[in-house]
Description:
Number of strands: 18
Number of domains: 3
Largest sheet: 6 strands, parallel
CATH topology of the largest domain: inorganic pyrophosphatase (n-terminal core)
CATH class of the largest domain: Alpha Beta
GO biological process, one term: potassium ion transport
InterPro entries: DDH_dom, DHH_sf, DHHA1_dom, NAD(P)-bd_dom_sf, Oligoribo/pAp-PDE_c-di-AMP_PDE, RCK_N
GO molecular function, one term: nucleic acid binding
Mean pLDDT: 84
Strand order of the largest sheet: 3-2-1-4-5-6
CATH superfamily of the largest domain: inorganic pyrophosphatase (n-terminal core)
Radius of gyration: 27 Å
Protein name: DHH family phosphoesterase
Number of helices: 18
CATH architecture of the largest domain: Alpha-Beta Complex
Helix content: 40-55%
Amino acid sequence: MVFRLVLGCGTVGRQVVERLEAAADSDDRLLVITTDESVVEALRDESIPARSGDPTASDVLDALESPDVLFVGGDRTDTNRVILERARATFPGASIVAYAGGNSASHDRRAFDEYADAVVDAEGALVEQVLAETASPQANTAIGLRYHLRTIDGPLAVVMHDNPDPDAIASAVALVDIAESMGLEAEACYFGEISHQENRAMVNLLDLSLRNLSPADSLEAYGSFALIDHSRPGINDGLPTDLEVDVVIDHHPPRGPVPGTFVELREQVGATSTILTEYLEQFDLPFDRATATALLYGIRIDTSDFTREVAPADFRAASVLWPYADTSLLDQIEQPTIEGDTLETIARAIKNREQRGAVAVASVGQLSSRDALPQAADQLLAMDGVDTTLVFGFRDEMAFCSARSRATDIDLGETLRDAFDRIGSAGGHADMAGAQLEIGILASADDEDEVESIVSVVEEVITNRFFEAIRTHPGTPVGTYSQTSEWLFTLED
Length: 493
């Protein structure tokens, strides 16, 4: 629900009010305060809530509930300036759009720029401009985010998912920019590591400021928390599952209840970076070169260069970012040196692959870098006669899986959930997905031969469960559940 308050209602304000009332959702609220009794009566005749009062009077403003968005809509510049100054003092958390009137001078403009979030003058398509600032769905979410950032305590920890990809990194950096523009101290944070060479190149070449957290680190230094590119604490991040979350911004479908006072889950866009680009626009913030470059790269990676789950909003965001992005740095990011360990992992995947029809599965054994897995999965997918791949490996007491597909009748995210949700966590997109499986029994192995024997059995379980999920998908989950697989993945010291 959005509460919109209109203070002053001249010629322009009257048109805006009528359009706002028509565009509002059923649970939104609108209230008009003006000194013109005839306008109040006319609005009430149209079932628009209106009240007679002087919007320049502090006692009138003090008696009002704090709005989400406020429009200063009188005709006189001097009166609107007074309303604006007093409204900002009374409602510090509101998003304020102000009409400057038809006779604004330079000193008036300075005051409007200081106290209003958006200023509309007498030139151009005025009513449409006001409506774009106050009534569009994108504006509504930006209004909600702006209001919430003004009310929470800092510092704000903007937490990405574990081992973040470019979309998560770029989105976190952009939210930090937005928070800091409002005077809220913020820090982009992640658990795990950034080991993929392109992702490291992105962070290093753009000189992005990120904090690498470990599960042992205290979170007491932070006054509030935001989740970026994922939506549940403790699921693919190192946060406590019962953490109170203030902001959630993601484009993935949630797989359970989503906490958060402000939540933006927009599954119809291809990247979280697209959502943050729109926020930067709505906040009217200048695009920092590094942030713009990161956001553009994040959109390109998550949409596979605009070929996967792409939406019109992704193209528009890219066009907005393009003039500010450093394309020469993008070229350097996309052509980093491939490490020897990554090449060895790819080679093991090719050598160890088991192919059934157009589906190839490969274990690469022990991992030095889990980011080599998606690259190996991509390489298997490039082989003749293969349209779906799963590559997995082991690190510490975990098995990590990465899957790719170009088959039109397979949803990899659902397939991996069918195969592995009962023995781990899994999910992703239709053509790109992953899973993490805890293998507690490895901790109890006494020698190398025993570890090798256990790994061999686990490899067989993972391979068979994936092939079975592919066979039964789509439509029904895996019909059988192996007691052996349950024992392998849950036994602890």
